[in-house]
Amino acid sequence: MAELLRYRDDEAHEEPAVTLDAFLGQTNATAVRLEPDEDARALIPYLDRLGLIEVAFPTFRDGRGYSAARILREAGYTGELRAQGDVLIDQIAYMRRCGFDSFAPEKPISREAADRAAAFHDIVYQKAADRRSPVWALRHG
Amino acid sequence: MYKYDEYDQTIVDTRVAEFRDQVTRRIAGEITEDQFKPLRLMNGLYLQLHAYMLRVAVPYGTLSSRQMRMLAHIARKYDRGYGHFTTRQNIQYNWIKLEQAPDILADLATVQMHAIQTSGNCIRNISSDQYAGAAADEIGDPRPWAELLRQWSTFHPEFSYLPRKFKIAVIASEQDRAAIQLHDIGLQLRRNEAGELGFRVYVGGGMGRTPMVAPVIRDFISTADFVSYLEACLRVYNRYGRRDNLFKARIKILVHEIGAEEYARQVEEEWAHVKTLGLDPPPGEFERIAAYFAPPPFETGLGEDIDRSDPDFALWLDSNTHPHKQPGYAIAVISLKPVGGIPGDASADQIDLMADLAERYSFDELRVTHAQNIVLPHVRKADLYALWKALDGAGLGTANLDLISDIIACPGLDYCSLANARSIPIAQKIAQRFANLDRQRDLGELKLKISGCINACGHHHAGHIGILGVDRKGEENYQLLFGGSGAEDASLGKITGPGFNEDGIVDAVEKAVETYRALRTDGERFLDTYRRVGMQPFKEAIYG
What we know:
- The complex is a heterodimer of chains A (141) and B (544).
- With 141 residues, chain A is an alpha/beta fold.
- Chain A has helices at 20-25, 64-74, 92-97, 111-119, 135-139, and strands spanning 5-6, 18-19, 31-34, 52-57, 80-85, 102-105.
- In chain A, strands 1-6-5-4-3-2 form a six-stranded mixed β-sheet.
- Chain B is built from 17 helices and 20 strands.
- Chain B starts with 5 loop residues before the first helix and ends with a helix.
- Chains A and B meet through α2, α3 and α5 of A and α1, α2, α6 and α9 of B.
């Protein structure tokens, strides 16, 4: 596993993530892993006690995890939200906009390169899970 | 026309820098072709049979003369002196070098243009009615809404890795000139019984290998809510659209498999949540955009009379102009379908000339149509003759709008790596067979559309006559379809029977139109006669 890229101030969550089925069957886990076809909304009742949600990207083409991330953030989840798998450098900006704040790419990405790629666009057209104001809000104060 | 402010310009300029960085990394071997592919595709860059192809976005098909001249400049400087206008109201260049692509994007950005999301599994260029802002039958200009959607969908972080590409079209009249029912989402601006403005929402139409006419999934959504509603539509698709099979990944398959009602229910449920997030831009943003689409300063008190003494001009006038909402004006359509030409192609000189004529006669504005022609939307009737003379002198005066030689054709096997058969030579042969304009006019409105493979880029399912090129044991073979329509009476064509070779298909088309001539009643188009009498008489004529 390559180096973890984190955009959080707290310590990385230590407990290994369990599958969604395992999580729903045991009440004391604090880290869970979501596969692309699993419903993020199943976690909504438990968000308060979750410290890490890992969202799997078996291939970069599978964009379901972007919706999962937004749904979790929209539901108020504030813990670590990690994108794991076929995470590419040019996706990190979009992933961060959707609420991911931690990345475990299969192929290593340097912090510097990730920051550089994510820094290209500082103006955005639409609201997402980050707190950036869309252009229409900037235009109309 | 919409004009970028500093924010829009910064976003497009940044994209150029970002793509230049991506291309540099690709050329240096830091990223693989597999990793680069989705990045270049989101900038409209395809790898075709012979070279890279770059598709440039023309949002809702609207261009200024300055932008049009830039398209000519790109054709000269980076391509072989021509461009190809597409069925998505865009333009594409077929002979591009990868290392020059960032420079092209930089040139485009100087005239507020880009190639963002003209390919890839994301929300594509928003298309619209080519007569927007000029047609007498619209209830408002659809383009400000399309621009609002352009901005909403540009670099949308959640919807850039959808199961498949996603096409949205917006119109504002009962007559559908943008084929909205054959789009992933079609939006028709309308008023509800209370007089409020909103959209009828069609979801799940499309062509390709599984053609479908979109069902209405909401009869009315207020303009104040439509961005968040579309967000919900897309989220349901992104989560539940099929990803196990590329050929079943479009939203039409999802809507078909779970049913329009169930899809609508899921969207309503998602929207109940999404609309609380404050995603809809305020009315002031629409008003800001709409101000750019204010009508041009039309002259009043103009006469309606046109001197028809030149018979060739009179023919063009009758076929290639459309009523304008402003007295004394007309909408003029420039056919890019000369007999023997390549449908949708224009040379750099022709593009420049059209730009000049738009500046002189049409308030500096042009449109690209999904039928691969160019529109000058606001021409004084008194100027039509001078306009036609200038067009005719440059090979742009063909009087065949909506006639059998006004053919939509995909690039086909001459360019495309997906194609099974050539499309362009078939279009050329049919146009030559029916070269006599008197004969074409006698046949009346007849929309003939040709695709070189099952992906249907040439819209063959929506043709009154459709032709589909297939590969049969290593030979090009052409199937014939009748009865499609991309208009408000949308329908899908039916295959006649066994296919034909290159010459046989031209003969079969001729037999079909002669059958129509024998069977038609007064005022009936080919499509109407076919719908009335059915396939059988045509089949007998073709195969009998």
